[in-house]
Design goal:
This protein has helices at about 5-30, 35-45, 60-65, 75-110, 115-155, 205-215. It is built from 6 helices and no strands. By secondary structure, the protein is an all-alpha fold. The protein is flat, with a radius of gyration of 22 Å.
């Protein structure tokens, strides 16, 4: 499918807006992090002189700098707080969407009949799967940054609640892995987080809304 002129125009407009934001970011970094100049020069030299698209531009956050050049610890601390919150937010999103996925699967098996209702249920589940994948990606990025920043800031103890996230960890509490039995089933560590209640209905009633859409 070819993009229409209108779609191409909107895409160009978004890219221009993003490029202006990137330019403003670079100017701000030059003010507060002047040591980044050499890293950006090296980056341009390895890009073979081609322009870097704004959505591929490396922002050189403290976690991306590491120990390559000196970085103000206050900036490292700011990103640490951001990434720590981001990781916990991603876990909460995983909890919510995994609960939704399990509830709709059970409801589909017990109550859904007919091609139209099954199609709507599958589309709803695809949307939930996309949100699960997005939440996992956010967690992986945040955790990667925390791993870099923690020794720079002497942060310890955070690993117990924010562990490495493997594919097999992304499952509902009642899910059984291959080779496990109900008696030997182990709870994924993501459900050890405080507030990860086993309720299948979110407080805002969003699951009820999702189920009503299927009919």
């Amino acid at each position: 499918m070819h993009a229409t002129d209108n779609q191409e125009g909107k895409l160009l407009q978004r890219n221009n807006i993003l490029q202006r934001r990137v330019d403003s970011w670079v100017k701000m970094q030059e003010l507060y992090m002047p040591t980044l100049a050499n890293l950006r020069i090296n980056e341009r030299s390895t890009s073979s002189g081609t322009d870097i698209a704004p959505d591929s531009f490396k922002l050189w956050l403290p976690s991306q700098i590491g120990r390559a050049v000196p970085c103000d610890s206050r900036l490292q601390r700011l990103e640490w707080r951001l990434r720590y919150a981001q990781a916990h937010d991603a876990l909460r999103s995983l909890h919510s969407n995994l609960r939704a996925q399990t509830t709709i699967l059970k409801y589909k098996d017990r109550n859904i009949r007919g091609q139209g209702a099954n199609t709507r249920a599958r589309n709803t589940l695809k949307g939930i799967e996309s949100r699960i994948e997005a939440a996992a990606n956010r967690y992986w990025r945040a955790h990667k940054a925390l791993v870099v920043l923690s020794p720079l800031l002497n942060e310890t103890g955070w690993h117990s609640s924010l562990q490495p996230l493997n594919r097999e960890d992304i499952r509902f509490m009642s899910d059984v892995l291959w080779g496990e039995t109900e008696g030997s089933r182990k709870l994924s560590w993501i459900w050890n987080m405080r507030g990860a209640a086993p309720d299948e209905m979110d407080n805002d009633g969003s699951l009820e809304g999702k189920i009503s859409v299927i009919h």
